[in-house]
């Protein structure tokens, strides 16, 4: 695969999707920087696992180590202050009257991408990589492909500089995301995703499942568990 000479900025939360996106970017770009957002999320433990994942990722491949650049942390306390959601408050995770899950944080991805665009501009990066997905998602409107395309246009116009938003997971499900990790980095990367990435909305890392750590009952854990079971079933079927 040809390595582009450009710099890419990856929205790297420490979750399964963003970890696979980081590996995807390291395959393709000469320099890859990462950014995370501390917005008062209940599952702030995801930010704690990030340094280890970066270290482990660099240890997997010499080329990745050479291409992995700076990490950035942006604090967005205002987002939690104006959000009444299950990700920023001790409230139940359920479907709200508007049909969206209470874990939906209005404007979160729009804000993330706006700040990422500003950071990318300063760091000389023309590419932003993010893990939004319209196949396996909770109905979040800011994860839709149309939303991402609109943000790409807005950033390009607003910064007067061509910005490309890459969403490599947009049209694949969680099982395919596990498969993509294995395709990119073999069993070592798959094991890293399972063992070190964090998806649980409640921030639980005391319970270890075959798919990783988490409470096992929240929507994020259920989606990850279902995806891992499907992935493993497909692997067994392929070997027959």
CATH homologous group name:
HUPs
* Total E-strand runs: 7
Element string (H = helix, E = strand) = EHEHHEHHEHEHEEH
- The CATH class: Alpha Beta
How does the overall form come out from the CA principal axes?
A: globular
**Total discrete domains:** 1
Strand arrangement across the biggest beta sheet: 3-2-1-4-5
* Low-pLDDT segments: none
Explained architecture:
The chain has a single domain (4-198), classed as HUPs (Rossmann fold). The chain is built from eight helices and seven strands; from the N terminus they run βαβααβααβαβαββα. The chain has helices at 16-28, 45-60, 62-67, 77-81, 108-123, 145-159, 174-196, 219-239, and strands at residues 4-11, 29-38, 68-75, 127-129, 164-166, 208-209, 212-213. The strands form two sheets. Strands 3-2-1-4-5 form a five-stranded parallel β-sheet, with helices on both faces. The chain has a two-stranded antiparallel ribbon with strand order 6-7. The mean pLDDT is 91.
